[in-house]
């Protein structure tokens, strides 16, 4: 009887392995959901939809973007962490994946151990901008002005954990001056109030500010990249403007739930690499002031290393600011 049971068990295990192998070979056999942990229309959503459209063509199945906003991106990340690890639910998240590990005292997932990694997507520069009638004419003058008027200058952001919140914290840390922060529920309403003059300044991604800067509806003081951007050649770098070493980019990566089959991750990785070479994606990224990640960075290993490094980089900044979320 024991031998019989062993034979039955071995047969069942073999059947399971064969089925899993066949399933992996046929992957994907249905639509894939790409969770974006922020509202539709924001800068991360823009990046995701460009990538998802191109990956859909390559994979032969639709990669459908689902916006699961809230709690600085942690709700969407948690949704993916708890999903079936079958390759049909993936996450496109930005730098907030790293900062949330410190910002949030309680997370529903272990940032470093709840996910498998696909690869980096892009690193978007930030811009320091203001309402178009803000008085200072350059970055040096702006810093002097806000330091002298710290109790009345308002800094907009898209909510705790958003790119604009992180850049705003870094800016205040750099100039050693706390300012009045005004959090919004998303980039859209924050930009709307900046355009309307209800708030004074904001630090946000070029994917969200470039067209407004080019149209003259907001005032640009600096970009946070090491060099000026081709798409905004007249906007100096923060270093040129007097903020030494103020360089920050909002990097994006693609993740899957922990335990996703290696073959599925490999196919997603190959498709992501193709998408980042897609002429339309490259052109649209350029219009938004960014470039696709190089092949060497579009790997699981590179994304994991980036995440670990950025958790270490941002932890002291967040702790110094004392801006935590429950």
TrEMBL record:
Q: Which keywords fit this entry according to its UniProt record?
A: Signal
What Pfam families does the entry give?
TctC
Please tell me the species this chain comes from.
Peteryoungia ipomoeae
- UniProt xrefs under InterPro entries: BUG, Bug_dom1
Q: Cell cycle among the record's keywords?
A: no
The name on file for this protein is Tripartite tricarboxylate transporter substrate binding protein BugD
Write out the similarity annotation: Belongs to the UPF0065 (bug) family.
State the signal peptide span.
1-24
